[in-house]
Amino acid sequence: MANTPASILKDVFGYDSFRPQQHEVIENILKRRDTLAIMPTGGGKSLCYQVPALLFNGLTVVVSPLIALMKDQVEQMHASGVPALFINSTLSAEAYQENMGYVRRGETRLLYLAPETLLTPRILDLLAEVTVDCFAIDEAHCISEWGHDFRPEYRQLVEARKRFPKAVCLALTATATQRVRDDIRKSLGMSTVNEFIGSFNRPNLYIEVTPKRDPAIQTMKFLGRFKEQSGIIYCFSRRQVDELTLYLKNKGLSVRPYHAGLQDDERRRNQESFIRDDAQIIVATIAFGMGINKPNVRFVIHYDLPKSLENYYQEIGRAGRDGLAAHCLLLYNYSDAIKLKALLKQKEDKERLIAEKHLDAMVRYAEEQSVCRRVPILNYFGEVYKEHPCHNCDNCEAPPPTIEDITVPAQKFLSCVKRTGERFGATHVIDVLRGSKKEKVLKFEHEKLTTFGIGTELTQKQWMHLARQLLQMGYLQQEEEYHTLSLTTKASEALRMRSLISGQLQEPEEKALPGANKDELEYNHALFALLRARRKELADQAGVPPYVIFPDRTLIEMSTYFPQSPQSLLDITGVGKVKASQYGETFLELIHTYCQKHNILEPTSQPSKTGKSTRSSAPAKQTGMSPRLEMIAECFNQGTSLAGMAEKFEVTQATILNNLLKYVEEGGALQNLAELESQVSAGAMSQLSVHTAFDELGLEFLKPVYERMNGTVNYEDLKILRVIHACR
Description:
By secondary structure, the chain is α/β, with parallel strands linked by helices. The chain folds into five domains: 5-197, 3-Layer(aba) Sandwich (Rossmann fold); 205-397, 3-Layer(aba) Sandwich (Rossmann fold); 404-503, Winged helix-like DNA-binding domain superfamily/Winged helix DNA-binding domain (Arc Repressor Mutant, subunit A), CATH 1.10.10.10; 525-624, DNA polymerase, domain 1; 628-726, Arc Repressor Mutant, subunit A (Orthogonal Bundle). A seven-stranded parallel sheet has the order 3-4-2-5-6-1-7, sandwiched between helices. A six-stranded parallel sheet has the order 8-13-12-9-11-10, sandwiched between helices. A two-stranded antiparallel ribbon has the order 14-17. The longest helix is centred in the C-terminal third of the chain and has 21 residues, at 577-597. It is globular.
């Protein structure tokens, strides 16, 4: 086995360099210093103990809360040629004893255990027979009662530490506030000095919150963007999971349910189907996901409001673990928050106060429409996000909201709340304002009020949007159980003083799908599909998830660089020596056949150690232009329209424009600018102003130019004008 962290990273795991914090954490562990590592989901926490495990002489014990995580990790270790095993209740008595024998004989480097299993006398006695060099405690936030997933058995792990004082301890988690981190260190007796906190930012995730109107239809519309791609939909209740699963099945989608009400076997089968790409979508309660390491989840939908920002961050973190673009959508309605608050009344006082604090932060986040989505998330975990606008969330990409004077309708609504006795919810107040003759209105004789029928100028939907704004702005308060509205002191003062109230009468439209991620490689989609099919065959034969063979990122690089020799295959991210030996021949044969059929030559600028700055994150650009980029530019220069190119390459016109811009920035020349100019709807003077703005603000981001033009030139025109400007 290799004897340095860097050589293990390359030879075993197939990466050229470490991600942020990984090397520092590994070096700290090798120096036998207790370490707390806070790294984002998908940030490579596992390597922080897997690499040292191959350098220590003794055993590394990994404490994991879920059986699924243990199984997944062990399968991936075996695929990379690393001796690893788990001991848990799923094993037969014979397999249990067999694995204990492997441990006694020193024939494994990594042993995965649940905390309750570790603390049994049988396992503690077993570990006493060998040298334990490291305890790695995964999902360490479970130690803290201030965390979102407190597990009392984690509190007892300090007893194992006392039994093996020479073993270094590594605690890892993706979600931990300062209070939770302090609790982890205190519970495990760790030093403050050896704490490594990576950024909580996940730049590859597009984050969106949209008003929940008709959630089933909204979900179907969203899923249309992600055909044949993996995703998770989180629902609040088991009933909602079952109903939505049936609805999606009836629409012809490949979907499975997951919640605690299912039989254990059915729940396990559904999870396996999802992990192995036999089912594309899993609809689940929060019971699903922790420890699931499926890297190619392309979207996460929150059908209902999460209970906390920790839950939300952890759940959206299950998307895009491979570093490729993924979309996170939250459907928000304030009634979800009211429902959750009512349930919190069942908790004990201290537990309820903690939960209410978490929920309030979640509601503030969901209702924020002007600040970059990453700002409140990262602030919650004690990190200041300085790079906003991020240009990868709905708030940063949306045009500035149109704020108008809504004083008169706001006064009407507040007055109606007052005159109905502050005893009713928004729906009834709106019925009175719109002059409804519903039974409830007549029962309370509200048709006799002076506010009856004075609000017919607005639709029911507009009035409801106004009511939500008045709640958010603090003019109204809503009783938790029955949702009745009452005026605040601020509202009474506003009515008395006839204060100006600004807002929006029209609810914002749903945002458009974001454009292509500028960091993604342009790859051959047909070859990728062939490689993915071959990978699925191999995975099914081996009885493992497809990503254990190779993750999508590896197949994408193969479909970009067309490696056709064993050495060039080793230069691909995620291809170590064991996997190259085991699977290299079959993938090289497929690539070679495809390239021969389509007259594709292997590029001279292959990815290499120097050609990629971070193999375990996004691949760096090639030193030469990619074949696909040249193909797109050549097609454009031959006179093909944008629409024709989008159809030919099976992408959006926005992606074509991004590729043309990239081609020009890398030194290429475009000759068909008349085609671009013909697509611009803005007038000549506006175009001139846009070019002046690009001169001053640069080409990297469009929003500053959009704002400079006060929204008079749409984004479609700006994307075209940016390419034209780059050619000047």
